[in-house]
Write a structure and sequence with these properties.
alpha/beta; TIM Barrel; 256 residues; globular
């Protein structure tokens, strides 16, 4: 289990939000933490700690008046730590190279590939060609409905018809280098991980998988290790001391 740090950017600021509260209406979200530092500060911190594979997430839509400020912060982070960070949020074949050239090790994609509630294999192939399989992370962020986890898109607001299953992950894994999975219903709440989802993900061994959502204590980390079969990497946001929480960054750096 490796710790994968994050830099979530909303309205041009590094923030931690409650995932399910994000809406495009006036760019609103329930905020847990708003940093006084810019994205470069966190990128430099992760660089000095020698942590690779963290992710920068743009939380504004591309038609938002705040999008450009958010994008500039993201590019600042990438240029501060070239090769050390991944980037997601509105990534498509048209901008993937820009982010990779700015220093991203990988681009993270959801909405472009899961169009109109389904997997677009054509768009997935376009994305693979634009970024290269070795630079592509598929975000399978999901919410539970009818006792099953379904992939959600458009800043976690829209359900697709695509369930998170081992079969789906095997097929998608042929096109990408890693998976990132936000458990959206617990994202930003720091009240425990989705053990059922972790157990499901533990059955997939084809590509690295990073779990995000609900971690509020070191016990939650151990629960994730147990239910995830020690196969999942972990992201910690609101509960991290860097973002106003109680889990020491220095402790997570030592995760193995």
């Amino acid at each position: 289990m490796r710790f994968r740090p994050c830099i979530d950017i909303h309205n041009g600021k590094v923030k931690q939000i409650v995932g399910g509260s994000l809406t495009d209406v006036q760019d609103q979200a329930k905020e847990n933490f708003v940093s006084e530092q810019d994205a470069a500060f966190y990128a430099e911190l992760y660089k000095k700690a020698g942590i690779v594979g963290g992710h920068v997430i743009l939380l504004n839509s591309q038609d938002s008046p705040n999008y450009e400020a958010t994008k500039q912060q993201a590019l600042l982070a990438l240029r501060t730590y070239p090769g050390g960070l991944q980037i997601g949020g509105g990534v498509n074949p048209g901008n993937a190279q820009e982010y990779l050239e700015a220093g991203a090790s990988h681009v993270i994609v959801t909405s472009y590939v899961f169009k109109d509630g389904k997997i677009s294999w054509e768009k997935l192939e376009e994305m693979e060609q634009a970024a290269g399989k070795e630079h592509l992370v598929l975000d399978l962020s999901c919410r539970k409905k009818d006792d099953q986890y379904f992939i959600v898109t458009d800043r976690w607001q829209k359900f697709t018809d695509v369930p998170v299953t081992l079969e789906i992950m095997e097929k998608l894994g042929e096109y990408c280098d890693e998976f990132l999975v936000h458990a959206v219903d617990v994202e930003g709440k720091a009240h425990g991980v989705e053990t059922e989802l972790a157990e499901l993900l533990s059955g997939y061994t084809g590509r690295p998988v990073t779990y995000a959502g609900g971690v509020g204590s070191m016990k939650d980390i151990e629960d994730l290790r147990t239910y995830g079969g020690n196969r999942l990497d972990v992201t910690v946001g609101s509960a991290l001391d860097l973002f106003g929480g109680s889990i020491p960054f220095t402790e997570l750096v030592r995760l193995k």
